[in-house]
């Protein structure tokens, strides 16, 4: 009987844990984990190429900067507009932009307010 009630003999049943506010109480305790089966193939030659960076390409012709050919940074050609000193120094929102930003913030955090109320 002690084991069934969560005594020294073992863990408490799930229904009893819920009543006590245990491991499964509250909305944050919900977790769904799933996966897919796969088959792994050993390819030592391809692994060696990958280990030595054979799949990397020079970024903007600079052989000292190698990136993967699927890297999104390969589409950036001029980074000067993103330099820390040149970005967003004196930008002021117009009244319309500020109004739209406030509406977006309200919508963005609307669900958070509902969760806090519950």
UniProtKB/TrEMBL annotation:
Recorded GO MF terms: RNA binding
Positions with biased composition (Gly residues): 1-10
Gene Ontology biological-process annotations: mRNA 5'-splice site recognition
Chain segments carrying region Disordered: 1-27
Keyword NAD on entry: no
Key words, A-Z: mRNA processing, mRNA splicing, Repeat, RNA-binding
Occurrences of domain Suppressor of white apricot N-terminal (ranges): 29-118
A Pfam cross-reference name: DRY_EERY
PANTHER family xrefs: SPLICING FACTOR SUPPRESSOR OF WHITE APRICOT, SPLICING FACTOR, SUPPRESSOR OF WHITE-APRICOT HOMOLOG
Record's protein name: Splicing factor SWAP
Species this chain originates from: Astyanax mexicanus (Blind cave fish)
């Amino acid at each position: 009987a002690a084991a069934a009630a969560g005594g020294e003999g073992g863990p408490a049943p799930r229904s009893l844990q819920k009543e006590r506010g245990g491991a499964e109480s509250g909305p944050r305790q919900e977790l769904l984990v799933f996966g897919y089966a796969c088959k792994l193939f050993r390819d030592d030659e391809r692994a060696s190429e990958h280990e030595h960076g054979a799949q990397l390409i020079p970024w903007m012709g600079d052989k000292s900067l190698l990136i993967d050919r699927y890297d999104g940074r390969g589409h950036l050609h001029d980074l000067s507009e993103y330099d820390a000193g040149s970005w967003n120094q004196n930008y002021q929102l117009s009244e319309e932009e500020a109004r739209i930003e406030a509406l977006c913030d309200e919508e963005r955090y609307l669900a958070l307010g509902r969760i806090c109320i519950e």
